[in-house]
Design goal:
Chain lengths: 661, 203
């Protein structure tokens, strides 16, 4: 009846696992309790979960990312603590458990922090930046969110029922095959990745079409704001790279569930096929994760330097070059796994070439600040912190691109330091900058600056303390994924790294305080104008938060940085003219809310859960349910409604007079 | 304030729908491209695995030219009949659409049935997907295509009902267009399978 699922799945085998499970369950109950306390079920369902408004969907993505960041960070600090104490001893984590922790940390951080965070930012910002009223496929957007949440749910529940994978975030076979990992852990990984991967592919398709087809009149490609450009490259990569992950993880699933032999040791299997396909997705993924951050920095640096981005075109071409090259470097992730010297040389060189366009951008950002009227707000702190940190990470990356060096350094903590250098100092800082920058647009009030800057300093210092020692430890030969060790000279550096993780924890606490303080002071932090930063691009022409339709009148675009152009060309004599083309309001068509997205997400969670535990009847039911909902949806031709022109006019008049005050 | 309202709800809705259908065509092309990547990787996997029979049967022992030829004919014919359905839809002839979709459906069912028969025969000989890396790759590549065709059949069924109930509405016409892209795409993939899997495998 319940397949492999028995009472043994409950985590009574270890106190730490039990504690983790209890915290997960209690946190879930607490959320439900709060909703029930406020009697907010209906509000939550009608206004949020069923919403197809890209702003709300984006906010839900970001909330998911922040929650999962906390979860992933708990894993991180557990690992740091283990390595700080495990000299000549067990430490406090049993070996199998340590392996689960690094596997779930990596999986969560990539798939359920970075991906939802960047998808959320793209959702909130891109349609507004291109002067669109919505994305091309609002329902599919809500569906993507549902699928991503289903994947996150599977990872979360693996803490309560059964164990998570111990095969690392990459799940390399043959170790991840049934023979060596007989539990449910790898299956949790496979289904979480598969389901959320489908969500990401759909997001990719949605935004490629949105950017291609929904730009406002006059918004040529070469007038698109840079965040939109980087988002464009990112979503193209999603469409073409994610299928590789889908195939790799699905074939691994076939091996495990149906006994096939794609990657097994015997019977003709070949693990290298997995590793190639995984990184055919995996390297583009690196750029999927970091390009949107490049976009954020470009926007922030231009706005707070009070001048256009230096060399707009070169940044655009650099972004496209990076996107293209990102498909030609995947082999650098396994230089040591049997390719010939010439193949390694080829991929080493392409990897070094990709550093060139990236370096170009660093100079673009620096030269934008040069002689600008710089305002050092919190978003700028993250940006400047990024420029310094990312440059270091880029240089260690070029080191690793030299195959002979990689033979020495691969699988050491040098690599761990390198990729955190890129992921934290590159990607995450960018998301935080974007969070700080667009928060008022999404919610209507700014975030507290002081706490934002404190958070930055703690993260910045904490990052260096936590990861610079790992470079040194890498040179000293310390392998990654090490659960205990017998080399006394490593311990001091690992203690420094622990201190760094605690400093980062302070940063996270600052961010929580920042949120609480800002919500409390929201009246004082209110943004009535819709343009709190003296912005340069179209998203600052809408209200904060924007109306459901974003723009009452679609703006006519005349150049890069349209809003800045309008401000300079003197139409500031006539405030409405800047923010609102003087045309009559018309009826506006917007999509209806629908529960299909969250329901399909819930069923996908059920499907994944059933496949993990071999509960076949549930799998079939959930699969049929998904089909049924999709079919029902296809019979529904009334998925749009009209906001009457008179209502639009009322809203806009109210907003413009509030802004004038 | 210079804002004023002029509204025409019906026109606004109609314009939004046209825009929506155009976007859907583009979106569907993108979906097909990402699906093409999936097939490309499955082809590549097959190409690598074809020699990895692990002492089990290879293609020569399993594939039969007549069987594959009939299968191919069914699928190619179904693409032609789908073309007729599309022509009927252009002309707004509901009966034509219904009839040709039915023929297409029948041909598709024939194709899937033959594939199932082939799989069944292989498994009965002890040549199931768990036998060797080669067979895993073969079943997965051909089976993924077959699964797509099956989904196409379900989709034809749904569209058939919609056309029956509502006639050739603009929405139905645009769905039919996307379904035809899907169907022809599967044809192309099949030609790939025919040339990569069956032709070299048949004596
Ligand atoms: C916030 C502070 C963070 C700390 C203190 C931290 C710490 C760690 C540690 C100790 C490991 C294990 C290293 C080893 O194998 O020896 C690790 C692995 C990893 N981390 Fe982080 N991390 C942090 C944030 C992030 C972020 C933001 C990301 C991604 C966006 C990330 C992605 C990864 C990945 C992919 C792995 C590899 C997991 C594996 O080996 O399978 N981490 N991290
Ligand atoms: Cu890479």
């Amino acid at each position: 009846m319940l397949g492999r699922l028995t009472l043994h799945a409950l985590p009574f085998y270890s106190l730490i696992a039990l504690g983790g499970a209890l915290v997960t369950v209690l946190a879930g109950l607490a959320v439900l309790g709060v909703v029930a306390w406020f009697g907010a079920w209906r509000y939550l369902w009608q206004e949020w979960l069923t919403s197809v408004d890209h702003k709300r969907i984006g906010m839900m993505y970001i909330i998911m990312a922040l929650v999962m960041l906390l979860r992933g960070f708990v894993d991180a600090i557990m690992m740091r603590t283990q390595q700080a104490v495990a000299l000549n001893s067990q430490g406090y984590l049993p070996p199998g458990h340590f392996d689960q922790v690094f596997s779930s940390h990596g999986t969560i951080m990539i798939f359920f922090v970075a991906m939802p965070f960047l998808t959320g930012l793209i959702n909130i910002v891109v349609p507004q930046q291109i002067g669109a009223r919505d994305v091309a496929f609002p329902f599919m957007n809500s569906l993507s969110l549902g699928l991503t949440a289903a994947g996150a749910g599977l990872v979360l529940i693996s803490l309560v029922l059964g164990k998570f994978s111990a095969a690392g975030w990459t799940a390399y076979p043959p170790y991840s095959e049934l023979k060596f990992s007989p539990g449910v852990g790898v299956d949790y990984w496979i289904w979480a990745v598969l389901i959320s991967g489908v969500g990401s592919t759909l997001t990719g398709i949605n935004f490629v079409v949105t950017i291609v087809a929904r730009r406002a009149p006059g918004m040529h490609l070469m007038r698109m704001p840079l965040f939109t450009w980087t988002a464009f490259c990112t979503v193209i990569l999603m469409v073409f790279a994610f299928p590789a992950l889908t195939v790799a993880s699905a074939l691994l699933g076939l091996d495990r569930t149906l006994g096939m032999h794609f990657f097994t040791n015997g019977h003709g299997g070949d693990m290298m096929n997995y590793i190639n396909m995984f990184w055919m997705w995996g390297h583009p993924e690196v750029y999927i994760v970091v390009l949107p951050s490049f976009g954020v920095y470009s926007e922030v640096v231009a706005t707070f330097s009070g001048k256009p981005l230096f060399g707009y075109k070169s940044v655009v071409f650099a972004t496209m070059a990076i996107a293209l090259l990102s498909f030609m470097v995947w082999l650098h992730h396994f230089f040591t796994m049997g390719a010939s010297a010439n193949v390694n040389a080829f991929f080493g060189i392409t990897t070094m070439i990709i550093a060139v366009p990236t370096g170009v951008k660093i100079f673009n950002w620096l030269l934008t600040m040069y002689r600008g009227r710089i305002r050092m707000v919190a978003a700028m702190y993250w940006t400047v912190g990024f420029i310094v940190t990312f440059t270091i990470g880029g240089m260690t990356g070029v080191l690793l691109a030299i195959a002979p060096v990689d033979y020495l350094m691969h699988n050491t903590t040098f690599l761990v330091a390198h990729f955190h250098n890129m992921l934290i100092g590159g990607a995450l800082f960018g998301y935080f900058a974007g969070y700080q920058y667009w928060f008022p647009k999404a919610t209507g009030f700014r975030l507290d600056e002081t706490w934002g800057k404190r958070a930055f300093w703690a993260w910045f210092v904490g990052f260096y303390l936590a990861f610079m020692p790992l470079y040194v430890l890498g040179f000293m030969g310390m392998p990654r994924r090490l659960e205990r060790y017998y080399v006394p000279s490593w311990q001091p550096l690992l203690l420094v790294a622990e201190l760094g993780a605690l400093t980062i924890l302070t940063g996270i606490i600052c961010q929580i305080i920042q949120l609480v303080v800002s919500v409390r002071n929201r009246a004082a932090l209110r943004d009535t104008t819709g343009d709190p930063w003296d912005g340069r691009t179209l998203e600052w022409m809408t209200a904060s938060p924007p109306a459901a339709y974003n723009f009452a009148v679609l703006p006519h675009v005349h150049g890069v940085d349209e809003l800045a152009l309008r401000k300079e060309s003197g139409s500031h004599m006539n405030p409405p003219g800047i923010y609102h083309d003087l045309e009559p309001c018309r009826d506006i068509v917007v999509p209806n809310n629908t529960g299909a997205g969250p329901l399909i997400g819930a069923l996908a969670f059920g499907l994944g859960f059933a496949m993990v535990w071999y509960i076949w009847w549930l799998a079939i039911l959930a699969g049929l349910g998904i089909w049924g909902l999709l079919v029902m949806r296809s019979f529904d031709d009334n998925d749009l409604h009209v906001i009457p022109a008179a209502e639009v006019e009322r809203t806009e008049t109210g907003r413009l007079s509030a802004a004038a005050r | 304030m210079a804002l004023q309202a002029t509204g025409n709800a019906a026109a606004a809705l109609a314009a939004a729908r046209t825009e929506q259908e155009d976007d859907r065509a583009l979106g569907f092309w993108l979906y097909l491209m990402s699906d093409a990547v999936i097939f490309a990787l499955l082809f590549a996997t097959y190409a690598v695995m074809v020699v990895r029979t692990a002492g089990g049967p290879d293609g020569h022992a399993l594939f039969h030219l007549t069987h594959t030829a009939i299968e191919t004919t069914l699928l190619l014919l179904s693409s032609i009949t789908f073309g007729f359905a599309a022509i009927a839809a252009k002309a707004g002839r509901r009966e034509g659409v219904l009839a040709w979709l039915l023929v297409t459906f029948a041909l598709g069912v024939g194709f899937v049935g033959m594939e199932i028969a082939e799989f069944h025969a292989a498994v009965a000989q002890g040549a199931g997907p768990e036998r060797s890396g080669f067979l895993s790759a073969y079943f997965t590549l051909v089976g993924t295509h077959g699964l797509h065709v099956t989904m196409g059949l379900v989709w034809i069924g749904i569209l058939w009902v919609q056309v029956l109930l509502r006639g050739v509405t603009p929405q139905a016409a645009s769905r039919l267009y996307r379904l035809s892209l899907f169907w022809h795409f599967l044809d192309i993939v099949w030609i790939g399978i025919f040339s990569v899997v069956y032709l070299p495998g048949i004596r």
